[in-house]
Amino acid sequence: MSFGDPNNPYGQQPQGGQPGYGYPQQAPQGVPPQGGYAYPQQQAPMGYPAGPGGYAGMPMEMPGLMKTSRVLLFVVAGLQIAIGLIFGIMLAAAGDVASSAGAGDAGSVLAGLGFVIVIILFAFAALAIFLGAKFSKGGSGIRITTIVYSALFILSALGNFTNGTSSGALGGIIGLAIGGIILASMVTSSATTWFNRPRY
């Protein structure tokens, strides 16, 4: 084979910039390979859309309104626990006063009714904490239970307007706002998508 033989893998590259036969020529950095035996660069596969929030296999992010409702559930639970504790202490003090004054059965009936209310407050607080904790992994049952909870919370807020005091009206307005936000976030299409999303 001569020095200029095009079949010689060690021969001089022909003029004109075209790659010869033999070993593949390497292109300078930043220039994609032209011809030769190099394999084309493969792009990383993209996932298929899995609905609002991203691609298949990627976690969907909780909608902002639902994050707000979750925080409000925890705030409501804390308020219910605090009110229940204060109410329970007041009932215990009132029971001591009634027993020392000889009030009798009427005082014990009122104290028993008050403690039932305290237990109901603690139960609703526990339910709010449970619902808020299950927002990240719960299904449609959590969504429906949250709708029922927020409806009951709105009804109790409306009951604050019946006592006719300014503090009751203020509590009713705040309760209506909190319950309305929680209820509104649960009936949106993004909430339905979130709670019906596939879980891996």
Please describe what this structure looks like.
With 200 residues, this protein is an all-alpha fold. Helix content is 58%, strand content 0%. The chain is built from 5 helices and no strands. α1 (64-101) packs antiparallel against α4 (166-186), α2 (105-134) runs antiparallel to α3 and α3 runs antiparallel to α4 (166-186). It is elongated. The two termini are 64 Å apart.
Radius of gyration, Cα only, in angstroms?
35 Å
The shape is elongated
- Strand-and-helix sequence, N→C? HHHHH
Oligomer: single chain
Q: Into which percentage range does the β-strand content fall?
A: under 5%
Spans with pLDDT under 50 lasting ≥5 residues? Answer: 44-57
Largest sheet properties: none
Helix % is 55-70%
Q: How many H/I helical runs?
A: 5
Number of strand segments: 0
Distance between the ends? 64 Å
Mean pLDDT: 76
Q: State the secondary-structure class.
A: mainly alpha
Short description:
With 200 residues, the protein is an all-alpha fold. The chain has helices at 64-101, 105-134, 140-159, 166-186, 189-195. Helix 1 (64-101) packs antiparallel against helix 4 (166-186) and helix 2 runs antiparallel to helix 3.
Sequence-ordered SSE layout with sheet pairings:
Layout: H1 64-101, H2 105-134, H3 140-159, H4 166-186, H5 189-195
Question: What are the salient characteristics of this protein?
Answer:
mainly alpha, 0% strand, elongated, 5 helices, 200 residues
